[in-house]
């Protein structure tokens, strides 16, 4: 019984931003549980490298180029996944970016870049996959929030705004699509060692040590620390779990 709860055999997961970092960590976890993976990202070379990594572990995987800020590109991404694999059982809205400045220093274009990449794209991709999931009889959507869904930072006004909003968007979609058997949940990653946070450590003085001091586990997270939560939220084990926001942060959010 337990093995079937977490079995993703025959399921197809579409992961935006799946060519590195947390997205690839989640994709690998789902692949290890039996899922077929469609990696979606802007960089074709990184996409191909991620697919090669997944295939080397025995997974069935492919990639599609996408600009998540373009609704037509998002629709084409879903169509390409359906054409190649026949279905989409899990969408992971993982694409994201950040521009770090003090609030008064952002121009409107920078604000929109972050909001469109992190928040609007999740709405558009979810809209694109909804008719397919409904027709299939259900599906899973995983939103990617952040510690900035909970906390603020002087250098992250648009990022934290987008990540706070992603939690509320997830709740709204969960309410709207529950009767279609579509569960929508949000993961709140802590401080994870990725390209995005490597740049943060270069730009924010003292960040590395503050994270270590605040984390009960005493370390930064790794992308594959999110493999398990991805499997849970993509699997039958979470069929009665929807609208939640789950920290995966080594205890960062509970430590004073």
What's this, in brief?
The chain has one domain (about 1-245): Rossmann fold (3-Layer(aba) Sandwich), CATH 3.40.50.720. About 45% of the residues lie in helices and about 15% in strands.
What features would you describe in this structure?
There is one protein chain. It contains nine helices and seven strands. It is of the alpha/beta class. It has a single domain (2-247), classed as Rossmann fold (3-Layer(aba) Sandwich). It is globular and about 45 Å long.
Number of strands: 7
Largest sheet: 7 strands, parallel
| Rg of Cα set | 17 Å
CATH-defined fold name: Rossmann fold
Fourth-level CATH superfamily: NAD(P)-binding Rossmann-like Domain
List keywords for this structure.
9 helices; 256 residues; Rossmann fold; seven-stranded parallel beta sheet
Write the SSE topology.
Blueprint: H1 2-5, E1 12-16, H2 21-32, E2 36-41, H3 44-56, E3 61-65, H4 71-85, E4 90-93, H5 108-136, E5 139-144, H6 157-177, E6 182-189, H7 195-203, H8 207-214, H9 227-234, E7 245-248
Parallel strand pairs: 1-2, 1-4, 2-3, 4-5, 5-6, 6-7
